[in-house]
Amino acid sequence: MVGAVTTFSVVTYVVAKQSSQKRETTRALLGFRKIEWHPLNWQTTAGTDMAAFLNKPSDFAPSLYEDIESQIKLLPPSEFEKPKKKAENDSSWLELKKAADEILALRTENQKLRDQQQVANLQVPTSVVRPIPIEERHYADELITRQAEEISKLKCAVQMLTIEKQASEESFEKQIATLQQEKEETIKSLREALNRSEDDYRCQVHQLRQNHEGEALDLKSHLEHLSKQLEQAKADMETCSAMLTKELKMEREAARKREDQQNQAILEKELAITNLTQQLQQLKAYVADTEQLHKPQLLWRQECETLNNQIKIIEAEKATLESSLQLMDVRLSSMKEILTTQEAELCKAKEQITDKNKMRELLLTRWRQKVYSLLTQQKSAELVAKKDFQKWQQKTSDLQEQLSSTKNTISILQHTVAAREAELKMASNSDKKLKEELQQSQQAALCLDRQMIENRDMVQMLSEFAVSCDSRTTEQARVLQQALAQLRTLGQRVSFASSRMDMIKSQLVRKNALRQLEEEETSNKTQHHQETVEDWRIERDQLTHELQQVIRERDIFALQLKQDSETWAEKLASMRANYEEEVLSLKRSVEDLEIINQNKSQQMEQILEREENSRAELAEFTERIDELRIELARHQNIMEQALEKQKAELESEWAEQLADMERRLNETRREYTKAVVKLRQQERQWVREKERLQEIQAVSEAHLQSQLTQMEEQLHAVEKERNIFMATLRQEGLLGRLRSERGEPVRLQFQDNAADEPNSQLTRHARTRDQVHPQKVMEPPEPVSELLKDLKSLAPAVLDDTEESSEEDQE
Q1: Can you tell me the distance from the alpha carbon of 449 to that of 435, in angstroms, rounded to the nearest whole number?
Q2: Is the Cβ–Cβ distance between 762 and 116 less than 8 Å?
Q3: Where is this region: Disordered (predicted)?
């Protein structure tokens, strides 16, 4: 920001210098008024006020401004090593420009006031007249010739500038011509691309039409092929129907055989039932005999329960067999009815194959009849499932009763084990005491672990604190380095301020011209592009509509073909699946009956094995109890030894860890003290560097102020010499001669009328003021210190704006 303010002050100084030089050239080119002779003194006529615009001695002598520039002690460009950063926002430069314009306006007003004061001072009549020596006249002539040469040089420079301007205009026109050519070429290329795309589009449409015709022919051929396949399928259906009739006959014979087998099985089961009833009668006689004997009540009750359970199981099996026989009769009757209906349908189908409508009706009737058969099968399956569920429930109840009987036996065994458990409790009490001692030792170990964890946490906290201190110190050092770098870079902006301002102005003019050209080009392109796009959209919509219609027709044909083929395939698959399911169901029923018989035999064997296993387990339990007692005594000794060893090891480890913790704490304290000392040293260094920078800034400001005061004093001295010189010329009568010899004042071609208007207005204002107040003294000019104050007041506003813009960019 300080660099921006310094660049702004340098720019204002350069602009003021250029304006003062222009004023001096205009004064040098103005003409002189007549000087009339009076016997007593030299006195000017009505044009005495124009004496203020005569050539001053500083115009004829070597330029004082060069000496002033040599006396200004600015920093050389070699000190600015790094390039200046470009301003990111144009708003700050615009505000600087506005401020510079305001300062220039103030300078022009101050200069006007000074000129008015000088005119008022020069209007005082002179009483002393001296003769002009010849040497001074020659000197004045030489000065006039030098001025004329300088004017000629300026004209040459103006001509060179006009030539350069013409060259730049020609180059700009050439660029415009090249841009127009490029524009025409791009338009041509775009038109060619459009034509190519149209041709491609037409070719694609032609290809699509051909493809559509080919697909239509393919579909027709496919339909013919499918019709042939349908005919073949009809023939296959006839053959299948013949095969199915044969299979039905075979299945009937197999069903009759199965019925005979099932009747035999039923007879065998009836014989088994009679045998079981005989066994029951024998058991009842056995029970009557046993009642006469003197047995314990518990055994008698258990045997009664087991016999009752066996009776219930046998009755349940009898009920299941009766229900299965009934279901088998239902299935056989339903199968006979289904076969009769199918035979009738096959006979009807052979007579009525010719009519398609009748074929459809036959298919529907077949489908309905198959659905009815499937429903009957489902209902029969549900009945079978219910019967099976009831059967499994009865089995579970039987098993539960068996469990109750086994529990009774277990309770007898538990009473025998109770005595032994009392002995085990005595041993467990001693074990409890040992466990309590173990718990106490474990709690001590946990306390030590907690202390260890707390110590580790403290060490981590201390290490984190040290790391944070280090990071803070590094951040402060980095901030100091950044501040130094910023101070170095801020001074680099001064050297390139004036050149950058001119460059920015030229770039702005160029950008405006390019924007106008681009806007014209974009407007033409958008109109042409919109027309082409609309035509292309219309054609594309028409073609897409045709394509959609073609695709829809193709999809409809394909769906119809798929549906026909799928329906025929589903019908064939359903017929085959039904017959296969019936065969499988009959096989499964036979297999299930065999599996039930095997399971019953296996269950009886398992129950016997369980009884033997339970007896063996009781013997093993007694042996294990003895072994466990021996192992408990051995483990007690081992645990005591292990606990003593662990205590010794833990004490040694904790002592070593505590020593390490103390060492680490001491080291961290030392590092902390070192970090604090370094922080204080860095803070002191930062304060010293800050004071040094403030002193440098104060010295530089004092140096600039001294230079400005010197410049003001030199300006006052030059103005005094000019006034003295003009007074001597007017007293010696050289003004008239110079005017007569010189003729009309020379005017530059490149001067603007705006530069002459303020001078003419100033002279008129001075005349009117002299006529009204001839003896009034002008007010003193506005000093440069006030202008510097204005600049300092504008600087913070510019700084605030730039900071706000930078913050917005960062966000």
Answers
A1: 20
A2: yes
A3: 747-811
Task: Give the mean pLDDT of 429-440.
Answer: 70
Compute the distance between CA of residue 509 and CA of residue 16 in angstroms, rounded to an integer: 24
446-481 per-position pLDDT tens digit = 777 777 777 677 767 766 776 777 777 677 767 767
Confidence of residue 62 (pLDDT cuts 50, 70, 90): very low
What type of residue sits at position 482?
A: Q
Question: What contacts 24+ positions apart, CB below 8 Å, involve 759-762?
Answer: 759/26, 759/30, 759/53, 762/112, 762/115, 762/116
pLDDT value for 557: 61
Say if 627 falls within a structural domain: yes
Q: What is the pLDDT of residues 735-781, one digit of tens each?
A: 666 566 555 544 444 344 444 444 444 444 444 444 434 433 334 44
Return the sign of the alpha-carbon dihedral for residues 727, 733, 734, 737: positive
- Once rounded to an integer, what is the mean pLDDT over residues 9-15? 47
The pTM for the full model equals: 0.18
Encode pLDDT of 83-109 as tens digits.
444 444 445 566 667 777 777 877 787
| 155 and 748 Cβ atoms separated by less than 8 Å | yes
> What phi-psi label fits residue 743: left (phi over 0), alpha (psi between -120 and 50 degrees) or beta?
left
Q: How many residues does the chain have?
A: 811
Helix 2-29 × helix 356-490 angle, to 10°: 70
Structure tokens at 646: 């662990």
User: According to the model, what pLDDT value does residue 378 have?
Assistant: 72
Domain end point (choices 228, 256, 279)? 279
* Residue 551 placed within a domain: yes
**CA 796 – CA 2 distance, rounded (Å):** 10
Residue 583 in any domain: the answer is: yes
37 pairs with which residues across the strands?
Answer: 42
706, 732, 758 - which closes a domain = 732
SS3 of residue 780 by DSSP: coil
Q: What is the C-alpha separation between 735 and 651, in angstroms, rounded?
A: 119
Which residues lie closer than 8 Å to 574 by C-beta, 6 or more apart?
Answer: 370
- With 0-12 / 13-18 / 19 or more C-beta atoms within 10 angstroms meaning exposed / middle / buried, residue 12 is buried
Burial environment of residue 691 by CB neighbours within 10 A (0 to 12, 13 to 18, 19 or more): exposed
CA angle in degrees (0–180, nearest 5) for 23-120-783: 60
Q: What burial letters (b/e) apply to 144-178, b meaning 16+ CB within 10 Å? A: beebeeebeeeeeeeeeeeeeeeeeeeeeeeeeee
323 token code pair: 């229900």
Helix axes 497-732, 734-742, angle to 10 degrees: 120
What band does 726 get if pLDDT is binned at 50, 70 and 90?
confident
Cβ atoms within 10 Å, residue 374? 13
Say how far apart CA 158 and CA 164 lie, in whole Å: 10
pLDDT in tens, 675-725: 777 777 877 888 888 888 888 878 878 888 888 888 888 888 888 887 887
In angstroms, the Cα distances linking 730 to 41, 114, 474 are 11, 20, 76
The most distant pair of C-alpha atoms in the chain lies apart, rounded to whole Å, by 193
Task: Give the integer Cα–Cα distance in Å for 641 and 645.
Answer: 6
> Is residue 624 domain-resident?
yes
**Which amino acid would we find at residue 260?**
D
The C-alpha atoms of residue 322 and residue 319 are separated, in whole angstroms, by 5
Apex 514 CA angle, 512 and 518, nearest 5: 120
Q: Is 731 within 8 Å of 42 (Cβ atoms)?
A: yes
The tokens for 138 are 């020659």
Question: In which domain, by residue range, is 264 found?
Answer: 160-279
Burial bucket for residue 517 (CB in 10 Å: 0-12, 13-18, 19+): middle
Q: How many CB atoms lie within 10 A of CB 92?
A: 19
Token output for 723: 């006034």
- Whether the CB-CB separation of 7 and 99 falls below 8 Å is answered with no
Give 667's contacts (C-beta < 8 A, 6+ positions apart): none
User: Which phi and psi angles does 575 have, rounded to 5°?
Assistant: -60, -50
